[in-house]
């Protein structure tokens, strides 16, 4: 029986019913981090609590993966802060300019990465603002502040790791295996429809591509869950790459047939079955936590131009915000600048940076109100740690619950409150109940989001339309010679092209039917040409080398007549139907069919 919305708990925010245990773990880790920080007499214990909030992830592997990159990003950011302070400690304007440029460089790196690697890149950017700029009036304290921050982060990381271990937090390995197996069943259904002669369903294809490449950041998280986690991670990568290869083979079944004396359709079905068998083997290896028979990389497509444009905008946002705050003459403007850098940097790792800032602007006043209630009503002047622990419980647990929501708005508000509440409260031993300090902290948190949003209105982020057109132009530019890195398999290169489709969809590509069709056309042609070229390399040292060279030139010129002529000659000289020559001829036929089919689509679009 299908449950109604009223029967589903947390249905408004789309929160999974089993998220309560995760929220309780976050609260326990927060309390442990504060307790250890008080015991060690750290100057800013709330940094440890904020670290827990940032590392709050549903599975143990994800939390440890993010923790490793947070630690790495902090070390790099602290080093950069010390260098920038040493070079420009006597010139505030130059220090702000250097911080803006550094933030832009880190954003550029983040746009070339994904998952927690992108987070680590932006962390190195806004760490400079957190350390160097907040100590702009006392540059001699930068090193001490860096040590304190590093110690607090280490306490936060150890706290969440200990709590996850003691409470048996779920592993990502089993969940990932289940997800990949479910996607494999859907790929098989898509392939079955193609085998039955049904027209290719582009909508189903792009949904499958999006779901497969969307798991890419999680493939590495498995490596942190056990001593053999790297084996499971390798198997998961091979499954993901194999699923894209099988999906591409199923899509190729819809390509037109040729009149050449070769059973191209039968060959395509054999190729599809071969790839399906490879995926089954890799899934078995993932389930048994053993190495797959063939190790595959799962590369990410990188658009350097889009990354550069985003980096320039992030630099200008920070520069505008710092100019305004310096002009305003606020004595504590450095706190706002840190938050401007953090929100701007984290926002570029999302599909909608300005939307992320808007959520921050909405969530900040909510966090201020909740922190005020906690500090001046719930705690009300007490210094007892037990009261602090109990008082934090509802605020932390509810915020953590919201972070698990499938709604980006609710999830964003939950994450902001999970981080902002301990930041505003700033727990200490003894606790300082200073209304003026609370007011100033609250003001600068809200002001940071407001100033950044104003800067993003003046200089808008890279639009979805521009991102789509840039990705499509880059895909078209690779058609004649599809990019394939040294040592990269054709399947791995095809996976990279699939991640470009995922980026295209993130830029609202599903709403642009014509551009999406062009992107899929480029994907089809690139995959076929790349696989065909790989087969042709097997003939370069033999008697068929001239034919292989002729076929390569025909591919560049998109001369399908020559491709079919070469295929006929190879078939005439093939010793048997499963020989290298016959296989290469089949690839030449498939490539010519794909080029002709997409050329017809191109002509149709030009006519319209």
UniProtKB/TrEMBL annotation:
Keyword Membrane attributed: yes
Gene Ontology molecular function, alphabetical: transmembrane transporter activity
One matching Pfam family: FUSC
Keyword annotations from UniProtKB, A to Z: Membrane, Transmembrane, Transmembrane helix
Superkingdom in the source lineage: Bacteria
Membrane-crossing residue ranges in chain numbering: 20-40, 67-88, 94-113, 359-378, 384-402, 438-459
InterPro entries per record: PHBA_efflux_AaeB/fusaric-R (IPR006726)
Signal peptide: none
Name of this chain's protein: FUSC family protein
């Amino acid at each position: 029986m299908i449950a109604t919305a009223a029967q589903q708990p947390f249905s408004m925010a789309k929160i999974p019913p089993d998220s309560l245990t995760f929220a309780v773990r976050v609260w326990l880790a927060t309390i442990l981090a504060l307790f250890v920080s008080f015991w060690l007499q750290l100057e800013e214990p709330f940094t440890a609590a904020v670290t827990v909030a940032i590392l709050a992830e549903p599975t143990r592997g994800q939390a440890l993966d993010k923790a490793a990159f947070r630690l790495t990003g902090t070390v790099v950011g602290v080093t950069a802060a010390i260098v920038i302070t040493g070079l420009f400690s006597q010139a505030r304007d130059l220090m702000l300019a250097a911080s803006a440029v550094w933030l832009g460089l880190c954003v550029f790196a983040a746009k070339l990465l994904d998952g927690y690697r992108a987070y680590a890149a932006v962390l190195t950017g806004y760490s400079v603002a957190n350390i160097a700029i907040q100590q702009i009036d006392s540059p001699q304290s930068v090193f001490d502040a860096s040590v304190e921050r590093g110690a607090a982060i280490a306490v936060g990381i150890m706290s969440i790791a200990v709590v996850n271990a003691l409470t048996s937090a779920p592993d990502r390995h089993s969940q990932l295996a289940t997800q990949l197996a479910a996607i494999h069943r859907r790929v098989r259904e898509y392939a079955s429809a193609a085998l039955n002669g049904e027209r290719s369903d582009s909508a189903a294809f792009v949904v499958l591509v999006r779901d497969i490449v969307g798991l890419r950041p999680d493939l590495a998280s498995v490596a942190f869950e056990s001593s053999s986690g790297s084996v499971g991670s390798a198997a998961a990568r091979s499954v993901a790459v194999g699923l894209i290869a099988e999906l591409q083979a199923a899509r190729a079944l819809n390509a037109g047939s040729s009149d050449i004396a070769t059973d191209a359709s039968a060959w395509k079905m054999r190729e599809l079955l071969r790839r399906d068998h490879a995926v089954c083997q890799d899934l078995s290896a993932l389930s048994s936590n053993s190495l797959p028979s063939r190790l595959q990389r799962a590369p990410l497509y990188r658009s350097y131009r889009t990354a550069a444009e985003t980096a320039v905008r992030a630099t200008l946002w920070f520069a505008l915000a710092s100019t305004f705050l310096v002009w305003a003459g606020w004595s504590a403007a450095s706190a706002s600048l840190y938050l401007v850098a953090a929100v701007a940097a984290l926002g570029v790792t999302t599909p909608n940076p300005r939307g992320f800032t808007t959520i921050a602007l909405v969530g900040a006043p909510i966090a201020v109100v909740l922190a005020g209630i906690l500090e001046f009503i719930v705690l009300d002047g007490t210094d007892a740690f037990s009261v602090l622990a109990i008082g934090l419980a509802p605020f932390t647990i509810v915020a953590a619950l919201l972070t698990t929501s499938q709604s980006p708005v609710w999830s964003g508000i939950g994450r902001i409150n999970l981080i902002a509440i301990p930041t505003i409260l700033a727990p200490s031993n003894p606790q300082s109940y200073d209304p003026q300090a609370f007011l100033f902290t609250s003001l600068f948190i809200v002001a940071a989001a407001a100033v950044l949003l104003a800067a993003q209105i003046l200089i808008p982020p890279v639009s979805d339309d521009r991102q789509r057109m840039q990705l499509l132009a880059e895909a078209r530019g690779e058609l004649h010679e599809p990019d394939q890195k040294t040592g990269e398999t054709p399947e791995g290169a095809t996976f990279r092209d699939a991640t470009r489709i995922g980026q295209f969809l993130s830029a609202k590509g599903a709403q642009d039917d014509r551009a999406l069709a062009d992107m899929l056309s480029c994907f089809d042609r690139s995959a076929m040409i790349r696989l065909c070229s790989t087969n042709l390399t097997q003939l370069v040292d033999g008697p068929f080398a001239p034919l292989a060279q002729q076929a390569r030139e025909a591919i560049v010129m998109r001369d399908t007549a020559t491709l079919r002529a070469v295929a006929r000659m190879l078939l005439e000289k093939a010793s048997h139907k499963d020989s290298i020559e016959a296989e290469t001829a089949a690839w030449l036929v498939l490539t010519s069919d794909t080029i002709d089919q997409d050329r017809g689509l191109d002509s149709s679009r030009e006519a319209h």
